[in-house]
Structure to design on (166 residues):
């Protein structure tokens, strides 16, 4: 894999699977979430942008395609000619909606993958929450103490830190 680290001001990082064709475009927060997903960073970790991008490219051998689990992913830097325009995020998965999609479907609120799920009547995934105390993933469960059947986020750490968020 060839990386151009001198292009630190690039807006996006692109990940493509050479096996199944899956691809995604990540801005800084997407890169950070990707590193959390693969256990490289804790979600409440506060580090500089340069180190986040360096970790993202340096740990590429740990990544797997979310569709086919292939480790054969190509990473590249995508320069944005419109860096003064704020990127629009998908309301379903919160990934950056590619500019090409916004040109074809102006005003869209969902990326291609989430829109396909909605069209098929499938539910969109709930975004993961992370515990502000220990950094582990949290799970959305029904609050049995509530009269109205409310839900709450519960930390999944072992041993439990017992953090709960309504």
């Amino acid at each position: 894999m060839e990386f151009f680290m001198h292009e630190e001001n690039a807006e996006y990082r692109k990940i493509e699977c050479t096996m199944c064709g899956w691809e995604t475009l990540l801005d800084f927060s997407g890169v950070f979430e990707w590193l959390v997903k693969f256990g490289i960073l804790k979600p409440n970790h506060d580090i500089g942008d340069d180190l986040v991008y360096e970790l993202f490219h340096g740990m590429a051998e740990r990544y797997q395609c979310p569709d086919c689990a292939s480790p054969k992913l190509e990473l590249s830097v995508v320069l944005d000619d419109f860096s003064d325009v704020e990127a629009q995020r998908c309301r379903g998965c919160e990934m950056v909606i590619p500019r090409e999609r916004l040109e074809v479907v102006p005003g869209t609120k969902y990326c291609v993958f989430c829109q396909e799920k909605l069209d098929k009547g499938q539910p969109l995934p709930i975004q993961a929450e992370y515990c502000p105390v220990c950094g582990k993933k949290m799970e959305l469960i029904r609050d049995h103490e509530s009269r109205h059947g409310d839900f709450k986020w519960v930390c999944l750490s072992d041993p439990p830190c017992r953090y709960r968020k309504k």
